[in-house]
Task: structure prediction
Amino acid sequence: RYVLLPNKLPPKRFEAHLEVHAGSVDEREDEQGVAHLVEHVTFLGSKRREDLLGTGARANAYTDFHHTVFHVHAPAVNSITGQPMLPQVLEALEEIAFHPQFAASRIEKERKAVLAEAQMMNTIEYRVDCQLLTYLHEENALGCRFPIGLTDQVKSWPHETLRGFWERWYFPANVTLFVVGDLERSTQETIRLIEKVFGRVAPGRERLPAMAAAALPPPLPLAAAAAAAGVHGNGNGNGNGNGAAAAAAGQQQQLGPLKVRHAIRPPVEHKWGYGPLALGEKPAEVKVFRHPLLQHFMLSVFCKLPIQPMTQMAHLKQLLMLRIILSVFQFRINGRYVTGQPPFLYITLDISDSGREGCAVSTLTITSEPADWRGAVAVAVQEMRRMQRHGLTQGEFDRYRQAILRDSAQLAEQANKIPSVDTLNFVMESLACGHTVMGHRDAHEAMSAVAETVELWEVNALARSMLTFASDYGAEGAVLAAAAEEAALEPGRWPYLGPTRCTSIVACIPTYVDASGASGAIKFDPSPAEIAAALADPSLDCSAAEDVDLPDSLISTEQLSQLVSERKPEYVPVVPGSGRCGVTHGPCGIVQRRLSNGISINYRYTDNEPRAGLLRLIANGGRVAERPGVGQFGRVVVGSRTLSESGAVGPWGREQIEVFCVANLVNCALEADEENIVMDFHFSSVDGGMEAMFQMIHMFLESPRWEEGAMDRAKLAFLASVKSVHKSLERATSDRVLDSMLGRTERCFRDPTPEELEALTLDGMKAAVSELLTSGNFEVSVVGDFDAAELESLALRYVGTVAPRPAPQPLFVHPIAFRNPPVPERHQTWHLKDSDERAVAYIGGPAPARWGPLGYFGELKALSGPVRPPLQTKAMMDAAARADAESSRRNHPLFASVMLMLLTEIINSRLFTTVRDSLGLTYDVSFEVTLFDRIRSGWFMVHVTSHPDKIYDALNASVSVLRDIRFAPVNRRELARAKTTLLTRHESDLKDNAYWLGLLTHLQNPHVPHKTLECLRDLQRLYDAATVDDIKFVYEQFNFDDDHIFTCVGTSGECAPEPGWLVGWLVG
Result:
């Protein structure tokens, strides 16, 4: 089967995904993990896949319970040959699926890679997911057939096992091809191409028993057999390559019955959470998973139901009602969270279809500190009962129905702006669930039509049925009996499937806690009976909810007019003293303005997301503005989190602000990063959404509310983060490298310690953050589909009337200095006690700064004049012209940033080729450079995972790759491939508003003087002009010898590795 769908974003690119309807659930008892290994071998063993490298295409593959998918993201035209890419991509996919080589060397190489992948992904989070799935699907193979498989089996399979699985499942009738994108050819041409490439593959046929085969007439010649397959084969003539590999056996197989794929995917039976109770059926038992590396109490309550295929308007109506129910439930939980000190960290309710699991799953998840688990469960059960018993208020119903419709309308407007990969994944999942696939405009029209027919009593009735699984745990029989009586009198009271019931409950808890209830040293042992009793507690009060008033606006027209009259906002010259107050239009359509109170504005119109936009309000500050010392350190970052937790401004509480945001389609996030305090908004640019956002900005800057409760929640969040570091092999290992590089007292990139958190006061944080939140320290950047005149008018009235206050002078910046510690501290090892063996290594060291001349780490001054465009070095240039071109590149403000990105891409390619592919020491190895805008420093980090007995080899090989570039310099082919990859990504990212927001940020920041409009103008030119000598020049800024790199190896397991492993592992 094939699915074609034209899609114009990104332009001149397309997605081709080949879905084989076979995954881990199709494995036999002795094949656990073989589907995943076959995916590796078929994909990475393909020569035609290798030919895609350097063309601008990206290819990958993955295996899940129900399928294996090979996918390619490609340009319409090959960047090397200039030929259309679709034929080449289809040929590669056809070879991958139907003509694999199964070379012994490739199988052994990928066996090592899969074993390394199993080590890498076996984090405590992954183990929790496995436990949840194990108990959720206890009655079928989904509970035990995880795609990664069993490592003992992976190690031992003969090559024939892989080929046997492939022969059973890789046949045309079991495959679906998806092609979505800007194909630059007609649908009929594409269909003919698909038929040409895949139609030549012979159909899949079952093997005949030996006796039956002996009775058959002589087989046809191969050519005749292939011709017959083309006429009579399954799947529109699409065939099966099984016969190509073994001709004689293939001829006999063709005489057997045609293979067909399972009618039900995945092929399992579920225990459903509805309908009459079986004889003697008891409530679901609580299953407990304890582990020392867990930090919080997490309880998951599940209910499995059949997927309702979306094929009728009534089904769409039910979906709308479910979305309203889920939205209101989460709003109510948020309301409980902001009142006082909540006993929970998170409570979430999800009801969704799962194509990979072949069922719909309702999930109530409760997360808390261990000491608070009873209170957390009580809150969740109370709110489930409140909604199940009393339903929604009229205000909640009206508000969220309208919000969902507005969101649907916005999505419909963006129908032609959704990336092909997202569209394809949506189509693939819809088909897996049996849903009718609709275009977004058609879906919105249908949603609008059913919304007119939805009434509050219908939503409340659906909530009554769907939420019973958690609201009435332990009373299933009584609820069913009462529902039967009520339904007889009032048929619509228990719609859809009637009362639901819990099918499984899983508690994931730490083995030990400390005296305060956080994870520590005292045994934590709530019994399954205690947890079940808390869920079934009949005493929990659940009176009907009260509605929250929706503010029409956050600031009245009269108040705003008075502020405008008093403060007289106006636009002033972008460059002080220039006398030019008009709009400054830069390259790429960027407009720059400046308000009289000092706030600078950059904006750019795009149609990437119709009727919507992004705004970033940024203030210089962040972690680097933290002053050392107890009572000082942490004031900015924890203070910013406190403001975010508060969510209240002026006279409006957090609940009212949330309602205001929901009604106006405004989303807001506030946080402090290393260098800045950042407030990001996603807003609707129609129906008053943009004005609502500017009202929020004005109130936040003028009247933020500092609340003790918000401070307590912020501190608890940071405390949990600090304590979780030591239970994460990856985070703790990278932390040790940072400690070694920057010093344990150099803490500006770290979270505050528990002692520093305890010492922070609300007044102290308010003073530190308020010092940075001044009009002279702000920059606003806006990207989206908006009217420029409206944007400027709103910014003038709402942002221009913020009280003028100068930026802090001087702006404190924590000094950064790399240390030269003794060898035992420079090259560390450590061990985390764990039930499972894992290993990870990090290599770090200094890197050049993003801005300024390479090798210079001092303060930057403003550029002395206009930026000269970079020139390409050409073959016929004389020495003077060549030197001039080189100077134009290396003196360009973007030089360091662009060359570091190219070098990073090249190093990552070499690491993969050597450490992953050639040596088979790891599944995942990566090189990354951390760069800043204001901080005059940077560092690199290599991250590599492996088995504990291979981790030192993997680390050694990674260090060798870094050093070998000096002796095997980057060549033109490597550079060209890196350029293609990064430019392709850049061109694709230009269709993303978030990417544009990053490009605009700091364009008027005096503390980032080298980021100018010319940087955006010349970005692509500099990539195109880069030479291998430029890359060599940047590489020489690094020093990868033993005295300049910092390493840490972290292992986990019951016992630490033998000390002998630590000797002589590092290359000298």
Q: What stands out?
A: The chain has a mean pLDDT of 92.
